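step: validate -> pass
step: tokenize input -> pass
step: predict -> running
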Amino acid sequence: MTGICTGRVAAVTGAGRGLGRAHALALAAEGAAVVVNDLGVAADGAGTSAGPARQVVEEIRTRGGRAVAHTGDITTDDGARSLVTTALDAFGRLDALVNNAGFLRDRMLVNLTEDDWDAVLRVHLKGHFLPLKHAAAHWRAETKAGRTPDARVVNTSSGAGLLGSVGQVNYSAAKAGILGLTLVAAAELARYGVQVNALAPAARTRMTERTFASTMAAPGAGVFDAMAPENVSPLVVWLTAADSAGVTGRVFEAEGGRITVMEGWHPGPTADKRARLTPAEAGEAARELLAAAGPIRSVYGAGYA
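step: predict -> pass
step: emit ->
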């Protein structure tokens, strides 16, 4: 198979279903050899199964592509390290990492348990950090050996990480953390030939079907299915390809046929007394600045809280 990723090797986490599966298939269709990682858990993170990862591998091979399954837990140091070694053992190299794995435990803040918080932060945020750490260590070693890579990382955030989402405080915090991770990693890893970007996709998956059922419902026959996960994958494929040279430290939204470059926090109206403010002066200045600032975008679901 030939395409813009021919000769490259990509590892995709959470690739047994939904967006991860779509990414893995699209990468393989463009010539990449793919390490398909999936722990095979339920939508809330319970249980494990090797079936989903192996099924995607079989789909790729049936279509003439190259793929291997990795069913380790990428939220553990050993599991994340073995993701990288699986790519090296099977294909001799690693060129791209797509961090995608995740699940939901949605509750309103006052009902959220400590375990709900820890589990979602572990899978989404730690599950991005550890694979990225071990992939980066490999790429740094390659650079020191005189073989500077042309490597890519695509992290998966969310609109919930950009704006927040009612009933998803743990998920929103984790996805916001992924944005910070992306920006720092892009700056730190540039010297090793690594580009790091983040994606905030909108698509129909096990997670979104339950949370946003009406929005994610499939349309009738003959109508463009804007929420199909396959719509997001072309951008992921391009970001992992050599063609995306020079693009790093960026955050994209992707939905249907739409791509948006997000510009994040930037300074707005400012006041400076050049001396310490009293509380009353601080309040007066803040009110004046807020009146001059633009409106804030609503948190997702704010109208239903």
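step: describe -> The chain has one domain: 9-262.
step: cleanup -> pass
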